[in-house]
Task: structure prediction
Amino acid sequence: MSTSPSPAVRSPINLAGKLALIHEHWAPRVVAEMNDYQFKLVKFHGDFVWHTHEDTDETFIVIHGQLRIELRDGPVILNAGELFVVPKGVEHKPCADQEVQVMLIEPRGVLNTGDQGGERTATNDLWI
Result:
């Protein structure tokens, strides 16, 4: 596990370059922090698990591809360049028929599987 970069580092983060380092799906990697929030890059393919985050909203920004976020009252479809905020406490399930590249913005320490846990729970605070 790598550690976060020094606050003195002042260079841009190349998202395409960082995404090229990610070779697995559903495994978010931190690329930056702002206050207590982390900016994570992740690749999705297939269906995730239904879950909620009781204490925080979760922001999805699609960089490449198309993401479907299933909600109990119907799906939200996101294309490249679009974002959606899932409000705290709302059950959701991200899905991607083809690989999609996404940036997540959420507080440090949030588990990707929220209240569900299980085999898809990714290790937190892994930086690329």
